[in-house]
Amino acid sequence: MKLKKTQVLIIESLLGLLEKHSFESLSVARITQEALVARNSFYRNFQSKEDILRTYVRMMIDEFSQTEQAKEAVKSISIYAMSLIFFTFFKDQAKFILLLKKNNLVSLFQDEFAQYLAPLIKYQSSRSRSSHGQSKKDSMYYVTFQAAGLCQVLVRWIEDLCGETEEEMARMLDGFVKF
User: Fold this and answer.
1) Which pLDDT tens digit goes with each residue over 36-93?
2) Where does 26-135 have alpha helices with state H?
3) Are the C-beta atoms of residues 103 and 171 closer than 8 Å to each other?
4) What span, in angstroms and rounded, lies between the C-alpha atoms of 145 and 148?
5) Coil, strand or helix: which one is 131?
6) Would the CA dihedral through 136, 140, 142, 146 be positive or negative?
7) Could you give the dihedral angle defined by the CA atoms of residues 53, 59, 60 and 62, in that order, rounded to the nearest 10 degrees?
8) Are 131 and 98 in contact (CB under 8 A)?
9) pLDDT band at residue 162 using 50, 70 and 90 as cut-offs
10) Distance of CA 161 to the CA centre of its chain
11) What Å distances lie between residue 34 and 24, 39, 121, CA to CA?
């Protein structure tokens, strides 16, 4: 995902402001003032403040999905491999994840991650034939369940200062799925 310079300035502005202010207290005017861009530039690039965060999250997920390890984990249909790369990659995003948590915006991350997971789960189900008899609605709930679970475990792990290694977290999640 290639971002325009104005988008990058606005994203960086919002992320910087979030370190000192709550998301709710920030206005578009304040964000554009900090980014040194015109207000109409904001609306040419984003629909709302939430859209800024969604764009940033999509960029992170896109970067995650393009890693060689993530591509291999998808092919292997391995919960352990996918969890390992998930925790390894997003550990580097801990500061941002904690900003989302502080502002009650983890659902943005979950929603975007669910969109990433949906085709992967469909692909893995078709390879393992585990989706037999599953309706579209059932699949939607399953994807939501998986995305929310992964994201909430990630948040808790980061809040606990990554006390377990990425490998321990991957083994734990793999065990949960087998249970």
Assistant:
1) 999 999 999 999 999 999 999 999 999 999 988 888 877 776 788 889 999 999 999 9
2) 28-35, 39-45, 49-65, 68-76, 79-91, 94-102, 106-128
3) no
4) 5
5) coil
6) positive
7) 140
8) no
9) very high
10) 18
11) 16, 11, 40
The secondary structure of residue 159, as a DSSP letter, is: H
> DSSP letters of 14-36?
HHHHHTTS-TTT--HHHHHHHHT
**Both structure tokens of 28:** 């578009």
Q: At what angle do helices 79-91 and 166-178 cross, to 10 degrees?
A: 140
Report residue 122 as tokens: 């469909």
Of 53, 54, 58, the residue nearest 116 (C-alpha): 58
Q: What is the DSSP letter of 93?
A: T
Helix axes 166-178, 136-159, angle to 10 degrees: 150
pTM of the model: 0.87
- Cα–Cα dist 54/13, whole Å: 15
Residue 104: DSSP 8-state: T
